[in-house]
Amino acid sequence: MNEQEEIYAVVDKDDRVIGKATRREIHQKGLLHRSVHIFVFNRAGQLYIQKRSMNKDMHPGCWDSSASGHVDFGETYETAAVRELEEELGIRSRVVFWFKIRACEETGWEHVAFFTSHASGEIKANPDEIMEGKFMDIPRLSMWMTHTPKIFAPGFLLVFKLAMGRGILTR
């Protein structure tokens, strides 16, 4: 199926399912829907970030969360997070849920569930999704984001800020 024709749940402001629509319809009409962001850490505590493919319709070429994506119709947030890890990074790993963000402009009108995971093996980035990826120390990444925020996807900036504020990135 073409990415634009994938079916997602349309939800209300309280994240209750009220219908379904294609990706194209949801983005064209600005309908509320669901997504996940997953931060993947290595043993040294560094965060893996990815540079989005230039083929992406939203924020091409921007640095983003380790993995992220829409929640398919009928799928749970956790199932979507596990699927996105495998699709984008080629890893199977347990995910830990931390918090949700209500749909807003910064998230692209998506209710976002935030998860973390750990990579014990090699990451095999999907070239259809990712131009490049790397592990970075949190303080260095934070400084880079402060100095050049426009090279980062807005949803990633928001998720990073909230995770940092909750102490998740300093553990």
List keywords for this structure.
Nucleoside Triphosphate Pyrophosphohydrolase; two-stranded antiparallel ribbon; single chain; 9 strands; 32% strand; 4 helices
Q: Quick one: CATH class? A: Alpha Beta
Q: Give the overall shape.
A: globular
The chain-level structural class is: alpha+beta
Instruction: Characterize the largest beta sheet: strand count, sense, and whether it forms a barrel.
Output: 7 strands, mixed
Give the low-pLDDT segments.
none
Beginning-to-end CA distance, first to last residue:
40 Å
CATH architecture: Alpha-Beta Complex
Fourth-level CATH superfamily: Nucleoside Triphosphate Pyrophosphohydrolase
Q: Order of helices and strands, N to C?
A: EEHEEEEHEEEHH
Strand content: 25-35%
Number of domains: 1
Mean pLDDT: 93
> How many H/I helical runs?
4
Briefly note the CATH topology name: Nucleoside Triphosphate Pyrophosphohydrolase
Cα gyration radius (Å): 15 Å
Q: What is the β-strand count?
A: 9
How would you describe the overall organization of this protein?
This protein has 171 residues and is an alpha+beta fold. The chain has a single domain (35-100, 112-166), classed as Nucleoside Triphosphate Pyrophosphohydrolase (Alpha-Beta Complex), CATH 3.90.79.10. Helix content is 25%, strand content 32%. The protein has four helices and nine strands. The strands form two sheets. Strands 3, 4, 5, 6, 7, 8 and 9 form a seven-stranded mixed beta sheet that branches. It has a two-stranded antiparallel ribbon with strand order 1-2. A hairpin with an 8-residue loop joins β7 and β8 (110-118). The protein starts with 6 loop residues before the first strand and ends in a 6-residue tail after the last helix. The model has no long low-confidence stretch (mean pLDDT 93).
